[in-house]
Structure formats: structure tokens, C-alpha cells
Sequence to fold (322 residues):
Amino acid sequence: MNFYFAPMEGVTGYIYRNAHNAFFNHNNIGKYFAPFIVANQSESFKTRELNDLLPENNQGLVLIPQLLTNNAKDFIHTAKKLKVMGYEEINLNLGCPSGTVVSKNRGSGFLAKRDELDAFLDEIYSASITKISIKTRIGKDQPEEFYDLIEIYNKYPIEELTIHPRIQKDYYKNKPNLEVFKDALSLSKNPICYNGDIFTVDAYQEFTTNFPRVNSLMIGRGLLTDPSMVNEVTNNIKLDKILLKQFHDQIYSNYKDVLFGDRNVLFKMKEIWSYMIQAFTNNTKYAKKIKKSERLSDYEEAVSSLFREQEVLISQGQIFDK
Ligand SMILES: Cc1cc2nc3c(=O)[nH]c(=O)nc-3n(C[C@H](O)[C@H](O)[C@H](O)COP(=O)(O)O)c2cc1C
Fold:
């Protein structure tokens, strides 16, 4: 199985990625996907985007930049800049469900504009700057839209088609539509990667039993909760509390170095904790303390007491089973 770390805007930037790669990647996360950047015609990247994508900030891991746009000229222009930086594959975001993105017919909003999408793909694949993979939902309003979409996708040499089998309207609610995903496997002429709700080792095992032909899996929230999840699946290496603390400390220290102001550091750390806290026993009161902390000292105290007083406990479908 090929495992990929999903792009998560605001969370899996280069600081998180590097720490994950250093502490938990036993050569089994083949690719880390960068959170999307919006393609445009400007000569250079914004500082934040550049920092995230600079090869020197991503050493020792395979990074795939992701672009969000419905404008082929913007895609091609930005792809050329990424190619100069050394990137050989670019991922196209056709999945983002956020209202502000969808209202501009980007992300999963683009899925409803099928003629425009077809023309866009024709132009970017003809330009052939880099390999292009796609991350898609199965439709904007209805799962049945996927049957039109796959006919379009089949016209192009997609490096890998990652399917998150929800529609835009689902956001992250409801269950992934595995019926449509099953059809996708038989209909697609391009290699398929699955993404969605693989939160536990049990969920992974159930998925591989049901879909033995799938050999690429992209995981997001499951890895944010248990950064060792793929190690458990591949080598039976369970999440280790001491390692998790070191991982946390590296991320925290690096954010303190690069971000301006304690509030920004706390904001970033709290977002990570909204996932990672679920790896701990009796976590409710600690989650509240972390969330409420307004100073670094309060935060540090909350995190220390969590690590001191509780254990990590990830097993049998326990996380996200709310
Ligand atoms: C906070 C957050 C940020 C995300 N940012 C991106 C993004 O930048 N690009 C993208 O393609 N998907 C993004 N996603 C979607 C994830 O990559 C992934 O498809 C989704 O979480 C489902 O996978 P999972 O169930 O393994 O988490 C984001 C999801 C969340 C919750």
C-alpha cells in the first residue's frame, strides 16, 4: 500500500510535516501533500507560500504542491514556477468544500461546471509542464454527478486520481459513499487513491478487505490524531507517548521561532490538539484547559499535565466514533 499524508490547510504546513517525517515516518509515508495555494499570474509566491514549498524547508520528504484554481493560464503559470523549484508532480484541488472557494467555482465548486472543467483540464494537460494528479469529491450536489465526471477524467493522463467520496454539501459529515467509490474503481482508466475516514487500524483493515485492489491511500485526520497510525498498520509500531511529546515539543518550538506573537503560536497548537487530544485517555478536562489557555505558560502547564497524568490509547475504532 502507498500511504500519503493528506493536505490540511492551516495544519500540515512545513513545520508539522518536518516533525512528522522526523519522528513518525519509517519510510512508509510516500508523499506529503501540501495544503493548497491559489494559482495566479504573479511573478513570485507570497512569503508564506514560498516558505511552505521551498525545497530546503522540506528536506528528506516527498512533497506534492497543490493548486486551487479554475483558470488554466494561472495553473500553467504557477506550475512553471513550481517546476523551476524542482517539483515534478502537482496536485489539482477539486475537493475543497468551503463556501468562499465554491462560490468562485473552485475546488468542489468546479465539479458543477463540467464543460469548463473539461476545457480547463484539456489546456493544463496539453501544456504538460509537470505530472498532474487530482484530488476530487464525487460531485457538488449529487453523488450521481460522478458518472459524468469520470468520463471527463478518463480523457486525461492523470498521475493519480484521489477520490474523497463525499459531495460538496456533505463537507465532512455523513459517511463516505463507498458504492460510488466502488464504481470509480471499475470505471477509471487512471490509477485511483482512496481518501476518507480511515481513522483507525480497524478501519484500515476493513477498507483493505473490502477493496483489495486499491493500493494508494491518503490519510488526514487519522494521522493527525495518531501520527503513528501508518506505523501500526505496516510494522505494528504503536503510538509512543515519549515520542509524541518530543514530536509536540519540536512543533511548538519551531512555531515559537517563526511566528510573531504568542496568540499565533497558541492558535496553531490548539488546532493540532483538536485532533491529537483524542489519542489520550480521559482527555475532556485537558482538552478544555488547552483550548482555554491564553498564555504560553498556561498552555505548557496544560500539556505537561496531560502527558504526565494520562496515557495514549489508540485502538479498535475508538477515535472519532462519536
Ligand atoms: C482543517 C482541514 C483543512 C484541509 N485542507 C485541505 C487542503 O488544503 N487541500 C485539500 O485537498 N484538502 C484539504 N482538506 C481535506 C483533507 O485533505 C481530507 O481530504 C479530508 O480530511 C478527508 O480525509 P480524512 O478523513 O483522512 O481526514 C482539509 C481538511 C480539513 C479538516
Remarks:
- The beta strands are 2-5, 29-33, 37-38, 63-64, 66-68, 89-94, 131-139, 161-167, 192-195, 216-219.
- The first strand starts at residue 2 and ends at 5.
- Residues 116 and 245 are 48 Å apart (CA to CA).
- Residues 6-11, 35-36, 66, 93, 95-96, 135, 164, 195-198, 219-222 surround flavin mononucleotide (CB under 6 Å).
